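Hi there, hope your week has been kind to you so far. For a while now I've been wondering how a particular protein folds. I'm sending you its amino acid sequence along with the backbone structure tokens. Could you read through the record and tell me how the tokens relate to the sequence? Take your time with it, there's no hurry, and the full record follows here.
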Amino acid sequence: MSEFLFILGREDNEAATRCFQFAKVAHEKGHTVNLFLVDGGVAWADPDLDRNRKTTTGDAPGDYLPYLVEHEVPIGV
């Protein structure tokens, strides 16, 4: 299997949704996954941030982030 490092550096809802989605997919496929929140991306560590705001494709960061937390994917801030 491969190792993946995802870095989210923006508070942008669409960017966060894709980053969390790709991290989830890679983990589900058995790959080692690490995620770092840097710069504006650290806003996603705030538990009060709205993770249910939909993107243009109809999904949201909250559709993927709980999986990463539940499966203890390392998230560095």
